[in-house]
Specification:
Helices cover 33% and strands 23% of the residues. By secondary structure, the chain is of the alpha+beta class.
């Protein structure tokens, strides 16, 4: 038997489905509640709409100020630094924050900051020091990270079969094959023939859309225009899938570094014009 619970979180509706037996229903409910709690916590501390969030305080910090941040925020900063370097700037929360805050789409983030990831020095698991003023927007990574953390919580409670879906950024746990749609798959697919309906098993999936359908999508590579209408990536974690869609949206069809990153994360990719 499967149960489904849903809550509004992360700017969307998050659903969690868990397979249970009659004897472990109470345990499953506790696990689901804790999974929602960690996702809500991540949404709050990494909000770009709240000046008191970690990202809001970071954007207003003085040069050489040491800030105490939530451990989850530090984890995402580390991951974002890694992906920004690996992608050559195609994934860049600094540029995203500066662009979106200038257009008043991120009211919690100060847009005066001009620093880069190189200007954030991680002092410990809960502290950072700024070499220059820095603004960050985690719209391209936090949702995937929150889905992964929810899966971590479910696993820690002994749940072995589940699906966490945050508005299409999702991750499956266990061997059940879940049917999913590839966005715009009726259009011209550039990465192989696929049916509109796909299946994922013990994997994650994320999609990014550019153009009028998503005015908040930011091209973080200077003087680059995206060729793609949408990008869908399947990977081993939802954070990797989330980030890889942003990278792929700004890369050529045969980008060797992107292809290598897909292989390292057991990924597949579908792009449409």
């Amino acid at each position: 038997m499967w149960i489904t619970r849903a809550r509004p979180l992360l700017g969307t509706v998050v659903s969690i489905q868990v397979k249970i037996t009659p004897t472990d229903a109470a345990l499953a409910e506790r696990a689901i509640a804790e999974a929602f709690n960690i996702m809500g916590h991540i949404s709050r501390v990494m909000s770009a709409h709240d000046e008191s969030s970690d990202l809001g305080r970071l954007s207003r910090a003085k040069v050489h100020q040491v800030l105490v941040l939530d451990i989850e925020t530090i984890h995402v900063i580390r991951a974002a630094q890694h992906w920004a370097a690996l992608s050559g700037g195609a994934f860049n929360p600094c540029v995203a924050a500066q662009t979106l805050s200038r257009h008043n789409l991120r009211p919690g983030i100060a847009h005066q900051a001009t620093g880069t990831f190189r200007d954030i020095r991680i002092v410990s698991d809960t502290m950072v020091e700024l070499v220059q003023s820095v603004s960050l927007d985690f719209g391209g990574i936090a949702k995937g990270y929150a889905v992964d953390r929810a899966i971590d919580v479910l696993t820690a409670h002994g749940i072995s079969n589940a699906l966490v879906n945050a508005g299409g950024d999702l991750r499956a746990l266990g061997e059940r094959a879940w049917p999913v749609d590839v966005r715009h798959s009726h259009n011209h697919l550039m990465d192989g023939r696929v049916r509109q309906k796909q299946q994922i098993r013990h994997k994650a999936l994320a999609t990014s859309v550019a153009g009028p359908l998503n005015p908040e999508f930011v091209l973080t590579r200077r003087q680059v225009q995206s060729k793609w209408r949408s990008v869908t990536v399947q990977a081993s974690t939802c954070m990797a899938a989330d980030v890889l869609t942003k990278w792929a949206m700004q890369s050529s069809l045969l980008c060797p570094n992107l292809r290598a990153a897909l292989r390292q994360n057991h990924g597949r990719m579908w792009r449409t014009r």
